[in-house]
């Protein structure tokens, strides 16, 4: 966890971002700032636009208004595929459903992007992949296919895959929501370690205890807006917003279970 | 040695009333064996053509670009819905004629009847491959495609490394089916005097009136090719199989 986020350069900045899908207004003016080395969690009720914020940051969704800047690149003005690819090479993303390529082995899933996109020599890409697999504690699964792995293992491979391009930023989109409860801990442990090593990350999550523990800042979204943005202790325990207190409170019982499961 | 075996076979077949006497006449056997070679060559050329064109058509159909998908869709419908024999006649008598004219006479036209059989059967079956592959491409979950884009792949790379390999696995049984049909389809070459095995057989039976005898051989010949083809198809399917996906 970074200590003083104000002293470090801004990596991601969203200013008054608006996005609608047809008549449905999903984002109604999002402002968010992430400094290099920060871990920012986005929490809030379902349908409040959390995942859409992430999709805007790597150009998977195109906002109708507002500015998005990632490491000096204006994301909202990217108009063609080549420009979006240049951006996406620098941003890793991990999805709720892992989405590993089922016809490729674990090693191939991790090396395909660097070898095909960055033209990194195969041996070099494989060496990095093995390092990353060791970091997510799956060194023995190099030759396995995704279909042979548990959900938690697949998600850890997906995290390794997101790191393989040495991204400046990694987006985690509800990465534990599809997992069986006993597998959540192993995935969170990997993310915790990455954040401690200084990875800049934005996490959409329902794991309140986890968000509280690793985040420098927590943003609370509701109905297409970020209604509060503060360090975890402040947002969790000193928020004057009744809606936030109610939302966090709803997770209190759940938090104890998480605590037990992770053995913290 | 072989001579002796052929003689014995002809004699034995004669006993049960099957007349394979032509096998003892080199001037008749040679073009007939060559006909089998021609059939095999047609198959060996038309199969890769059909696969390459099928992939290209499927890519066009799923490209999301109307100027690309539209004409290919029209071609696929046209070729699927009309008889291949008529297509071959049209290609050979109409297109080929126009080409000859444009090139200043048939002598300058490099395209042989053999070429037109390969082109028409290959491109006809390609339309069926394209539909099978399109189905497979569209069956790849949208989230998988989005992930591939998020990783930094271009649209072409998504097709090349993700959707097409997955579609191929789904479409494999249909593709093998199409190839089996392609092998049988090469017999339409006889309509424009390409000396493949049926044409060569017709040449013999019009002289000797031994249709049944030659039909038996033709059936065995195609049965053999397609059995081999199906086995190769199964082998490829097994090789491509991955745990936890589709078939």
TrEMBL record, chain A:
<comment type="similarity">
    <text>Belongs to the ABC transporter superfamily.</text>
</comment>
<dbReference type="InterPro" id="IPR003439">
    <property type="entry name" value="ABC_transporter-like_ATP-bd"/>
</dbReference>
<dbReference type="GO" id="GO:0016887">
    <property type="term" value="F:ATP hydrolysis activity"/>
</dbReference>
<dbReference type="InterPro" id="IPR027417">
    <property type="entry name" value="P-loop_NTPase"/>
</dbReference>
<dbReference type="GO" id="GO:0015424">
    <property type="term" value="F:ABC-type amino acid transporter activity"/>
</dbReference>
<keyword id="KW-0547">Nucleotide-binding</keyword>
<keyword id="KW-1003">Cell membrane</keyword>
<keyword id="KW-0472">Membrane</keyword>
<feature type="domain" description="ABC transporter">
    <location>
        <begin position="12"/>
        <end position="248"/>
    </location>
</feature>
<dbReference type="InterPro" id="IPR030679">
    <property type="entry name" value="ABC_ATPase_HisP-typ"/>
</dbReference>
<protein>
    <submittedName>
        <fullName>Polar amino acid transport system ATP-binding protein</fullName>
    </submittedName>
</protein>
<keyword id="KW-0067">ATP-binding</keyword>
<keyword id="KW-0813">Transport</keyword>
<keyword id="KW-0029">Amino-acid transport</keyword>
<dbReference type="GO" id="GO:0005886">
    <property type="term" value="C:plasma membrane"/>
</dbReference>
<dbReference type="Pfam" id="PF00005">
    <property type="entry name" value="ABC_tran"/>
</dbReference>
<dbReference type="InterPro" id="IPR017871">
    <property type="entry name" value="ABC_transporter-like_CS"/>
</dbReference>
<dbReference type="InterPro" id="IPR003593">
    <property type="entry name" value="AAA+_ATPase"/>
</dbReference>
<dbReference type="GO" id="GO:0005524">
    <property type="term" value="F:ATP binding"/>
</dbReference>
<dbReference type="InterPro" id="IPR050086">
    <property type="entry name" value="MetN_ABC_transporter-like"/>
</dbReference>
UniProtKB/TrEMBL annotation, chain B:
<feature type="transmembrane region" description="Helical">
    <location>
        <begin position="111"/>
        <end position="130"/>
    </location>
</feature>
<feature type="transmembrane region" description="Helical">
    <location>
        <begin position="40"/>
        <end position="62"/>
    </location>
</feature>
<keyword id="KW-1003">Cell membrane</keyword>
<keyword id="KW-0812">Transmembrane</keyword>
<protein>
    <submittedName>
        <fullName>Polar amino acid transport system permease protein</fullName>
    </submittedName>
</protein>
<dbReference type="InterPro" id="IPR043429">
    <property type="entry name" value="ArtM/GltK/GlnP/TcyL/YhdX-like"/>
</dbReference>
<dbReference type="GO" id="GO:0022857">
    <property type="term" value="F:transmembrane transporter activity"/>
</dbReference>
<feature type="domain" description="ABC transmembrane type-1">
    <location>
        <begin position="36"/>
        <end position="230"/>
    </location>
</feature>
<comment type="function">
    <text>Part of the binding-protein-dependent transport system for glutamine; probably responsible for the translocation of the substrate across the membrane.</text>
</comment>
<dbReference type="InterPro" id="IPR000515">
    <property type="entry name" value="MetI-like"/>
</dbReference>
<keyword id="KW-0813">Transport</keyword>
<keyword id="KW-0472">Membrane</keyword>
<feature type="transmembrane region" description="Helical">
    <location>
        <begin position="211"/>
        <end position="229"/>
    </location>
</feature>
<keyword id="KW-0029">Amino-acid transport</keyword>
<dbReference type="InterPro" id="IPR035906">
    <property type="entry name" value="MetI-like_sf"/>
</dbReference>
<dbReference type="GO" id="GO:0006865">
    <property type="term" value="P:amino acid transport"/>
</dbReference>
<dbReference type="Pfam" id="PF00528">
    <property type="entry name" value="BPD_transp_1"/>
</dbReference>
<dbReference type="InterPro" id="IPR010065">
    <property type="entry name" value="AA_ABC_transptr_permease_3TM"/>
</dbReference>
<dbReference type="GO" id="GO:0043190">
    <property type="term" value="C:ATP-binding cassette (ABC) transporter complex"/>
</dbReference>
<feature type="transmembrane region" description="Helical">
    <location>
        <begin position="82"/>
        <end position="99"/>
    </location>
</feature>
<feature type="transmembrane region" description="Helical">
    <location>
        <begin position="180"/>
        <end position="205"/>
    </location>
</feature>
<keyword id="KW-1133">Transmembrane helix</keyword>
